[in-house]
């Protein structure tokens, strides 16, 4: 699933291309992808609306439109949002196509069909399922070391599971949780409230570091992720534990292990990240 760095990269690759453009029509090829509006009304609601800006919140993209409307897009596991020419061959799993007045298209592609495209009033963004319960943005000024320490204090869950909880921190998924825990030298099965002040500080900094690094490298392309231009990221070359089970740790040489924590795969070094 695209995580914060991947979704932010998509936003940055698209914002200058689509901002100020006007929607001239929309085609839907898979009905279940579209939420919040009857399909026979969708084209009428969107036709003539101007794109005013493209935002990101956690793993969600939000296309703001004139007339007080917004399109909320969640890519889920395999979703892609691509800026294309009409002549470009449509990918097999293209489910929604937005037509723009610059004679280009914005295409939503999703092989697994878990993503969604939802039309809402801008005033109702705070009521959108999933979006309304998101936790703090980890790269915002609101995410302070003091807040992080305070929030961990009473959390009896395992730290890996907590980092994946979108109501706790928005945008972190399996890749960047594993990488942050490795850099902070914290075992993924540690109980969050048991971390000492030094460990909390290390983890706080590591979260920011891996996310910023991921954005600078335009995301991690392992399977399906590409940006709005169809280009892969390069951050996969910087991964130190994620997906490297059976390989040697870059720090100590021990073999990276893979375990299941809270139903999710977790990669870690048993020496650098002791229990």
Written description of the protein model:
By secondary structure, the protein is an alpha+beta fold. The protein folds into two domains: 4-127, MutM-like, N-terminal (N-terminal domain of MutM-like DNA repair proteins); 145-268, Helicase, Ruva Protein, domain 3 (Orthogonal Bundle), CATH 1.10.8.50. Helix content is 24%, strand content 23%. It contains six helices and eleven strands. It has helices spanning 4-18, 39-46, 145-152, 159-164, 174-183, 197-216; strands at 23-28, 34-35, 51-57, 60-65, 69-74, 79-84, 94-100, 105-110, 116-121, 257-261, 264-268. A five-stranded mixed sheet has the order 2-9-5-4-3, with helices on one face. A four-stranded antiparallel sheet has the order 1-7-8-6. It has a two-stranded antiparallel sheet with strand order 10-11. Helix 1 runs parallel beside helix 6 (197-216) and helix 3 (145-152) crosses helix 6. The two termini are 28 Å apart.
């Amino acid at each position: 699933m695209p995580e914060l760095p991947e979704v932010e990269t998509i936003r940055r690759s698209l914002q200058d291309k689509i901002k100020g453009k006007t929607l001239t029509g929309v085609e839907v090829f898979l009905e279940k992808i579209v939420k919040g509006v009857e399909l026979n009304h969708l084209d009428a609601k969107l036709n003539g609306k101007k794109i005013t800006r493209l935002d990101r919140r956690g793993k969600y993209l939000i296309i703001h439109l004139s007339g007080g409307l917004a399109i909320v897009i969640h890519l889920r596991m395999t979703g892609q949002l691509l800026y294309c020419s009409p002549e470009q061959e449509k990918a097999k799993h293209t489910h929604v196509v937005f037509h723009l007045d610059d004679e280009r298209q914005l295409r939503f592609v999703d092989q697994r069909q878990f993503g969604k495209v939802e039309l809402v009033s801008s005033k109702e963004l705070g009521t959108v399922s999933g979006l309304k319960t998101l936790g703090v943005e980890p790269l915002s000024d609101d995410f302070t070391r003091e807040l992080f320490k305070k929030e961990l204090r009473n959390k009896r869950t395992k730290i890996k599971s907590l980092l994946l909880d979108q109501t706790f921190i928005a945008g972190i998924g399996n890749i960047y949780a594993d990488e942050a825990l490795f850099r902070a030298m914290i075992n993924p099965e540690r109980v969050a409230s048991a971390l000492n002040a030094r460990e909390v500080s290390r983890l706080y900094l590591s979260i920011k570091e891996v996310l910023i690094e991921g954005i600078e490298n335009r995301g991690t392309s392992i399977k399906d992720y590409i940006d709005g231009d169809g280009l892969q990221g390069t951050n996969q070359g910087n991964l130190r534990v994620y997906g490297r089970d059976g390989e040697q740790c870059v720090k100590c040489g021990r073999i990276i292990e893979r375990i299941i924590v809270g139903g999710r795969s977790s990669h870690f070094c048993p020496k650098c990240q002791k229990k």
